Amino acid sequence: MKKISLFGITLLSVAVLGACSSNSSSDSSSSSSSSSTTTEQTTSGSSVESTEQTTTYPSSAYVSYPYTIDVPSGNSYVIKNITKTTGSLDGSPIITIEMSFTNNGDTPTSPYMGFVVDWDVQQTDGTTTESLNGANTQMANVDNQDLVNMGNTNVNAGATVDAIIGYTLASDTEDVGFILRSTSLTSNPQGFAWANNQ
Predict the structure, then answer these.
(1) Which of these, 89, 99, 158, 190, is most buried using a 10 Å CB contact count?
(2) pLDDT (tens digit, 9 = 90+) per residue, 31-66?
(3) Of 52, 74, 95, which residue constitutes the final position of a domain?
């Protein structure tokens, strides 16, 4: 009798576990098909987006040049022009930034280093954001080499110079954001943007 009871309990346990396992599988396949549907919607949504003109940053961030910026507790800039070109070393897409730079610090610094300290230059695809690397070594093909050289020359405190600096683009199509480092960790980052279709 004990054997029959033990066999019955074992059989009942196996049936209950099998039912639970079956519900789990059904929940898993239900959630995976829901996930798959979401993926399909996202995929079809992004294919629609790729054919439309979109902007990554608010329209108010896209400025006209010359654009003057006095960075709080930082340097002063007049952005005269931003141009997309090809890097002279490896042919990668770069932007050149022609500017007037005023060193508001206490020690000599180059326009490029001042810009790096004040600004995070970045591109985003909406999912990821990448900070761009400098391209000053890629600008041998830029017409005004005197301004390119000034981009890497230390400027005394209080002095203003014209210079050209550059950044290597992570994407040949995404717009570029210039975010003030002093505001980048706040809920309201400040800066301006450049449209890559110019």
Answers:
(1) 99
(2) 333 323 222 323 333 333 333 334 578 899 999 999
(3) 52
